[in-house]
Amino acid sequence: MTSEEARPGLAPGARSPVGTMFAALYGELAPHPWRNPDADPDAYLLFYDRSLAMSWLDDIGGVLRKTAWGIEERPVGAAGLWGMNDAGQAHPRAASEASLAAWFQVGVEAVPGDRPLPVQPFLRCAGDAVARIGTLQLRAVQVLLPVQGLDPGSRPEYAQIPSVRTARWFGGGDPRSRTPVRVTLDSGQAASFLSAASEMRDRMSGLDQDVFVCESQSLADHHPLAMTTPFDDRLWNGPPLHRVTFHGTLTEWSLDALGWLGGFLADLGARHGVTTPLLLTASRA
Questions:
Q1: Cα(26)–Cα(242) distance, rounded to whole angstroms?
Q2: 3-class SS at 23?
Q3: How many CB atoms lie within 10 A of CB 169?
Q4: pLDDT, tens digit (0-9, with 9 covering 90-100), for 259-277
Q5: In sequence order, what are the residues at sequence separation of 6 or more whose Cβ sits closer than 8 angstroms to the Cβ of residue 254?
Q6: What is the per-residue pLDDT for 221?
Q7: Helix, strand, coil shares of the chain as percentages rounded to 5?
Q8: Is the Cβ–Cβ distance between 62 and 73 less than 8 Å?
Q9: Half-sphere exposure at residue 28, Cβ-oriented, CA atoms within 13 angstroms
């Protein structure tokens, strides 16, 4: 149930998203031997069903009903974190050598001032969908972060960097799970991001979290994936042009921790004046 072009579009009465969030998971995917790809739900349906089950799917729409006063539209569905757009395993824009396992695209709804972008549940949902297809040896992740949908001015004092409030979830984990990672952020055509990135790096060390400990940053040592995107440049300010890579240690190599990291870096970017989407590319160092 996938296509070469994304399937945006809003039902009557639906809310308008503030930006697009896209995730591409790379690695070796071994399909389950019992799975029938011609009959079982595909990545799109699996992600949709999981989003709906977890109350993450925003499916507010409207239906027309005849009343004594004429025809009126009444809302149906429920509010959530994102509206479904598209998903699949193969993608016509993916680099042939990149080992793309699956990709997912949603429209993100407005984020409350004391919450981060929902990157963590987004990647968790993507991981759950892929786990129904097969066993994934995750090598790298790319996520488009709609930072422009964040408003630092609306954030209360207790949640200036909202993702830090949830860092405690990762406390008490197995120290052996800590993983050196390379994390690249690209702002496309927005060159001003390079100065903001230095401020973000300085800010990281002063925050009460050790989910991601940044040790250095570079303008050159990027993962090859960071130079490409598996989606159309019209979704952001592409093509990839201005990027910074952070080297550090992540509490664990998991979609849960990578999702937290995406929300954290989006929070930092918005706090330091970034108003354009950022493309995150993360891999083991």
A1: 22
A2: strand
A3: 14
A4: 999 999 999 999 999 999 9
A5: none
A6: 86
A7: 30, 30, 40
A8: yes
A9: 2
| pLDDT tens figures, 245-255 | 999 999 999 99
Cβ atoms of residues 111 and 118 within 8 Å:
yes
pTM, two decimals, is: 0.89
- What is the strand order of the sheet 134-145 is part of? 82-88, 100-108, 19-31, 134-145, 278-284, 179-186, 243-250, 212-218
- For residue 132 the two structure tokens come to 């129904």
- Spatial separation of the C-alpha atoms in residues 244 and 236, rounded to whole Å: 17
Say if residues 249 and 175 touch (Cβ distance below 8 Å). Answer: no
Band (77; pLDDT cuts 50, 70, 90):
confident
How far apart CA 85 and CA 87 sit, in angstroms, is 7
- How far apart CA 46 and CA 44 sit, in angstroms, is 6
> 57 — phi, psi (to 5°)?
-85, 130
Query: Looking at the chain, which runs of residues are DSSP E strands?
Result: 19-31, 61-67, 70-76, 82-88, 100-108, 134-145, 179-186, 212-218, 243-250, 278-284
